[in-house]
Write a structure and sequence with these properties.
10 helices, 293 residues, Rossmann fold
């Protein structure tokens, strides 16, 4: 004689089991609404693109002293937006000279000049610490009916960090490679993205030192476009200050005195750059009780 030992599961018990399984399941990635904005920030956990309603950017005409880099990146971005061949770009060099500002300004400028009926170019920012999730991001945007500039600000890698290999595979060399509708822009203070001591350590411990260094340097080689940014001259710095004053309509009573003051401001910070000029303008506008809208 057999006894049926199957428990009698009530509806409430089944509901609790279902809720527990739901909590154990990995979070669902939300569907990307690419029409929500022209700029997004990538979040890997859970995988999603957060729309940015208002991008923190400056107008292209305010970027002084970087004319060659400006024209080159703008042309490269425009060609890409129109479906023509273009290169991944590495903007490297002196801090505060407008590397990230140029990327955001170029994105806005290209969208303003696209022919009517052309899909807008999308800008996606990925944080340095999320580089390993690039393949997931590529999967998400690969089939989208838009073209994307994936942008990483202040990109660099330190000793023991192997996440740069994910970037190498996406840029060039992986079995899928970079999607046709994606281009990658990065800014860095380093031309080769890796510190010198890291490459020297690799050389010292490797069986073939030359191959070890090639492994590290080859990441930068995957950027077809290198744009260098260097410290600006005094005249270029003053042109930046004057450009901001004119753009925002600041009522400066004595232009020569303002120039002298702005140079003192730069001296106290040990740097003449676009960022220093902007910080001075914020201080000046505050003293003049003028809002920077």
């Amino acid at each position: 004689m057999t006894t049926d030992k199957t428990p009698d599961l009530s509806a409430a018990t089944l509901l609790r089991i279902a809720e527990a399984l739901e909590r154990l399941a990995p979070p669902r990635s939300s569907e990307a609404d690419f029409d929500a904005a022209d700029a997004f920030v990538w979040h890997p956990e859970p995988p999603r693109l957060a729309p940015v309603g208002k991008v923190n950017r400056v107008e292209m005409l305010l970027l002084k002293g970087i004319d060659r880099a400006r024209d080159t990146l703008l042309d490269n971005t425009s060609r890409f937006a129109r479906g023509l061949p273009a290169n991944n770009a590495l903007l490297w060099g002196a801090r505060g000279m407008g590397k990230s500002s140029l990327v955001k300004a170029a994105h806005a400028q290209v969208n303003r000049t696209l022919p009517a009926g052309t899909a807008p170019l999308k800008l996606v920012e990925i944080h340095r610490e999320d580089i390993e999730s690039l393949p997931t991001l590529m999967t998400l945007v690969r089939a989208a009916p838009f073209r994307f500039v994936v942008f990483c600000d202040d990109l660099s890698f330190d000793g023991g960090d192997t996440s740069y290999k994910s970037l190498k595979a996406v840029l060039e060399g992986g079995i899928e490679g970079r999607p046709e509708n994606v281009i990658f822009y990065a800014t860095s203070n380093r031309r080769h993205l890796l510190p010198r001591d890291m490459m020297e350590n690799e050389r010292a411990t490797a069986i073939n030192p030359g191959e070890a260094v090639e492994e590290k340097v080859s990441l930068s080689d995957r950027f077809g476009l290198w744009l260098g940014f260097h410290k600006c001259s005094q005249d270029e710095y003053l042109a930046m200050v004057d450009g901001y004053v004119e753009h925002f309509g600041l009522a400066v009573p004595d232009r020569d005195a303002m120039h002298h003051e702005s140079l003192e401001w730069a001296t106290t910070r040990g740097s003449r750059s676009g960022r220093t000029a902007w910080q001075y303008i914020q201080d000046l506008a505050g003293r003049l009780e003028h809002r920077l809208d």
